[in-house]
Design goal:
With 138 residues, this protein is mainly α. It is built from six helices and three strands; from the N terminus they run βααββαααα. The longest helix is centred in the last third of the chain and has 33 residues.
């Protein structure tokens, strides 16, 4: 059995986050010691590791809840899990595309100023103040 602190150390998930996941139903309610301390078993550790990994990959709480539901019913088709992962992949691709656009614009803006003048004539500051100076919408 693991205390919440030990679970936190092993998974690198902060204690308040563990409590939050428990409140959200992602983690089953922990057993309590005679001193009312939360105690987690190996299954709790594995579940929290699963949640942590899914969060690291950007899955929403709702998606993780759906994935856990599928995991708890091993006889079900994995099609829904594939759909959830595919949807997350599309969201990541959309974010990457947007970030590439931002990168290009920030690169253009930063090259517009040599950094040797005064702030009154700074192209970076002027660009941030006037969206019309941007090459594209972002």
């Amino acid at each position: 059995m693991f205390s919440i602190g030990e679970l936190s150390k092993r998974t690198k998930v902060k204690v308040p986050t563990i409590r939050y996941y428990e409140e959200m139903g992602l983690l089953p309610e922990a057993e309590r010691s005679s001193g009312n301390q939360r105690r987690y078993d190996q299954a709790g550790l594995e579940r929290l590791s699963f949640i942590r990994h899914a969060r690291d990959l950007g899955f929403s709480i709702e998606a993780i809840s759906s994935l856990i539901e599928l995991q708890e019913h091993p006889d079900r088709s994995c099609e829904a899990a594939t759909d959830i992962a595919t949807s997350q992949l599309e969201e990541v691709r959309t974010k990457i595309k947007r970030l590439r656009t931002l990168e290009k614009e920030l690169n253009r803006i930063s090259k517009g100023c040599n950094g040797k003048g005064v702030s009154e004539d700074c192209y970076v500051l002027a660009s941030l103040a006037d969206h019309g100076l941007c090459d594209r919408d972002h």
